[in-house]
Every structure is written in C-alpha cells, then in structure tokens.
Amino acid sequence: MKLFFLPGACQIGIHALLAEIGKPFEIEKAARAGTPEFAAYTQINPKGKVPALIRDDGSLLTEFPVIALYLARTNSERELIPTDIEGEIRVLEMTEYLVSTVHMQGYTRARRPEKFAPSEADHAAVKAQGLKIFQAGLDRAERQINGKDWLFEKMTIADFALFYLEHWCVVNGIGKLGQSCQAHHDRLWANVEIRRAIESELIT
Question: What range does the domain containing 140 cover?
C-alpha cells in the first residue's frame, strides 16, 4: 500500500492508523494545487487531495472515513471497528462528524477563510464562525471521552480522526483541548511508531 500525503494535513490520522496496524506501507508526497507537479498528481488521484491510498491491487481509495473503514475491515484482528451494527454505525457517525463538520466546516474556516469568502472584509467573521464549530467539536469529543482512554470502550478508527484534529490544535494553536482530549492525543503520540510516522512527513 502507498499513502499520499501533504505534510501535516489530515492524512496524519490515516498515517497514524497505518502505524498502529503495523503492516508494511509506503508514503509519497502529493502535490498542492497551483504547483507544477499537481497535474501529474491528478492523474493518480483526480480529486487532487489527500488522503489517498493506493491499495496492493493498484486501486485508489480516497476520503478519510472510507480509507479508515477499509483498513479496519481488512485488519479485523486489531478490532478497530465494532462487529455489531449498532457499534459500527456509532463509530462511523463520530468519524464522519469529526471529518466533515469539525474539520471541513470548522477548522478549514478558521485556517483558510478565503475558501469561504472572497472578500477579505469577511475573513474575520468566517474565522470566528469556524473556530466556534471547531471548538464545539472538540468539546463534544471531550464529553464523550469523559476520562476514558478512547471515544468508545476501546480504540477505534474514530480515535484517529480525533487525533489529527487534536494534533492540529497542539501544533497550530487553534482551539483548546480539554483534559481528556489532551490525554487522548498524548496517549497516541506516545506510541513511538505513530510519532515516527508523523515526523517522517516533515523529512520525506
């Protein structure tokens, strides 16, 4: 398998998940829109974004929740997603919320307001709205963990979606982590393989 990445982007959650699973995989730097290399990258991934995973059969998977579910299902011995339907849909529900709402609607507004408002005069309001959404998501995760180690009774793919948001908060200073979320982040970051995986993006 090969994971395409942009340093520090949301694929760090998938990268951490792959490190946790522990099976061999490669990484390759993707290209950003507007760079000379971007056209070549869109030949691999027409969506032109990350995360993108090339599977062992050469086929492409995109979108964080889909890649995470695939990795969980194909590594079922790691028990990263419940086998009962109720447990599975609750994990997927939380994963989707963290990615599509907390990240895409919250963090992206706070970090890249120009994507939502062409006029610079509106950027402060867009940032404020984004920070409100982002912080609400972190607070919801805080309440759900509530002193446990993980979002659910055991580690699941949802924890890796939360991890990349927590890591952005730690690294970029956007939002504030509660005690449970900080401990959750630190618990995963203490895994040497996960830490090495994320740090490798900065030197590849």
Answer: 85-190
Total tally of structural domains belonging to the chain: 2
Percent helix, strand and coil across the chain, each to the nearest 5: 60, 5, 35
Q: Which CATH number fits the domain that encloses residue 165?
A: 1.20.1050.10
Place of tokens 């972190």: 138
Residues 185, 179: contact at Cβ < 8 Å?
no
Local confidence pLDDT in tens for the 204 residues of the chain: 999 999 999 999 999 999 999 999 999 999 999 999 999 999 999 999 999 999 999 999 999 999 999 999 999 999 999 999 999 999 999 999 999 999 999 999 999 999 999 999 999 999 999 999 999 999 999 999 999 999 999 999 999 999 999 999 999 999 999 999 999 999 999 999 999 999 999 864
68 and 94 housed in the same domain:
no
In the numeric block, the tokens 């040497």 are attached to 192
Q: CB-hemisphere CA count at 13 Å for 143?
A: 6
Place of tokens 């997927």: 92
